[in-house]
Amino acid sequence: MKKILFVCLGNICRSPMADGLLRKKAKELDLHIEIDSAGTANYHVGEAPDYRMIDTAIEKGTDISFLRARQFNKNDFQLFDLIFVMDKNNYLNVLKLSSSKVENNKVKLLLEDIKHPTLKEVPDPFYGTKIDFDNCYQILDDATNLLIEKYLK
Ligand code: 4NP
User: Fold this and answer.
1) What is residue 4's three-state secondary structure?
2) φ and ψ at 133, to 5 degrees?
3) Quick one: pLDDT at residue 110?
4) Atom of ligand 1 nearest to the CA of 136
């Protein structure tokens, strides 16, 4: 069974949105995979996703309100096969914790990996407005579709 982890900074906006979208799609497609998300920072550990991300997700038909933030740690390299990171800063911070080539190879910059036509990073919506949360949702909806095509079909 493939085990997939999404990583951002706070684990309250981007990575729980990706986590929730892939869970929903995996269920619909009857894919037996394990999915989780984490943040490189500890600011929001134990918290539900940001209410703005929860609201955007609900509007589009995905519930992420049950997810709780946790911090990425070295053990995640053992637990997961693929680690998709939302931006370059967090990608480098995850790689700093890896201790082998095998672990390094599990870590992917999400949008680069799925060959997004224009973006390399999922923009952080935290200091943004509704448009930024909608944009974040759309990018991750597309990215999770491509991820399923690439790794799970
Ligand atoms: P995320 O967004 O990394 O997509 O969860 C952020 C959440 C919190 C903060 C920054 C980004 N923060 O600075 O608290």
Assistant:
1) strand
2) -70, -40
3) 98
4) 4
Q: Say whether 13 is catalytic.
A: no
CATH number at residue 143: 3.40.50.2300
| Whole-structure pTM value | 0.99
- What tokens were used for 42? 């500890």
53: CA distance to ligand 1 center in Å?
11
Strands (E), 17-119: 34-39, 82-85, 107-109
Q: What is the DSSP letter of 44?
A: T
124 is catalytic: yes
Rounded Cα distance, 54 and 73, in Å:
25
| pLDDT tens track for 79-105 | 999 999 999 999 999 999 999 999 999
Domain span at residue 30 reads: 2-152
For residue 21, report the distance from its CA to the centre of ligand 1, in Å. 18
Which residues lie closer than 8 Å to 126 by C-beta, 6 or more apart? 10, 12, 13, 50
For the chain, the domain total comes to: 1
Phi first, then psi, for residue 32 (nearest 5°) are -95, 90
Catalytic site residue 68?
Answer: no
